């Protein structure tokens, strides 16, 4: 590596260390830990959807009564992203990840003591706040430790971890619930989250770029020497990054320096996509069961939808790092998802057809939100990255609240499963149009990082 070479002002350029040579073991460790946390986060997000049919049978209530529980969990995620994203840009990504995973673990595990929908409402609201804080900070931290040549792939892998966690949750739930009851799902998700809390306390570092901005010289030097052992520093070493320093408040900065229209377009795409994703994630098991696929087939099919999202997200990340055409590819994936939603509706009477088509729906729709997460992480500079990603997800959470909640209303009214699935085609096509408009605009990432414009002395 050549990270210990000075920049053109005599300082050590942090970007050169992060991007130089092969990914160091320390960088890989950060990505792997973020990925594991994302997987458990996805497991816990999907836990309510996978357990709702079993809980409704045990409590003797209609499965549609869980609509508010889905909605309040997503409201908590919206609040968590709005609050903990900006706090991370000020107080550190590591601190907010630790706080968030602790909240998720404690309040997911506590769901086993619930005896009513009202208790579940409170527990899922609080756990949702932690879930909302995890997403933007895992994306931001993994992006900042990944070399530029694989950054999109790394971000999509981490975001795919959330989707993969939902897939694992469905498969595990199909085995755990018949054998041990629905409580086993919440036990598993909660305690595994607390194990990862300990791992984060021990091994998760802070963002190097954020440490530059904060002037934390000693911490920064220790981290960078783990990435590049040849780096020589002393108390007078000056660290710089190739970004303009943001002096405005993080939220205001989302709408300055040419980012306003891009920010609004990102918000619209996230709103539409999360509306669809969370409607499908929460209601597919119940809808497929009502359509006559059987409980086990319904859970497996729902899990294949999540697995398709993992495959789609990984494909988008690899494509972006190789060809740089991420936004256009996302638009194509949305269109693919819309088409195969229609095919799923037509073939819902056959379990074999549904297993295939719902995987492709996941590839197109869930995979696309992974790609959009990578776009959001590239658009914003370090000092507002968690805020930008967090607010995009939080605005999207409005859609994620509307989708499951309205779905619960329609389920309670007896709307046919095929009709409900067909309704999701329209917002998917709207997302296609929104992404095409975003792709037609010039990239705004340059406003986040401009070569030759280093930050002022900070560490």
UniProtKB/TrEMBL annotation:
This is MFS transporter. It is a multi-pass membrane protein. Coiled coil: none annotated. The chain crosses the membrane at residues 28-54, 66-84, 96-115, 121-141, 153-178, 184-204, 264-286, 298-319, 326-346, 352-377, 389-414, 420-440. Pfam families: MFS_1. It comes from the Bacteria. InterPro entries: MFS, MFS_dom, MFS_trans_sf, Sugar_transporter_CS. Residues 30-445 form the Major facilitator superfamily (MFS) profile domain.
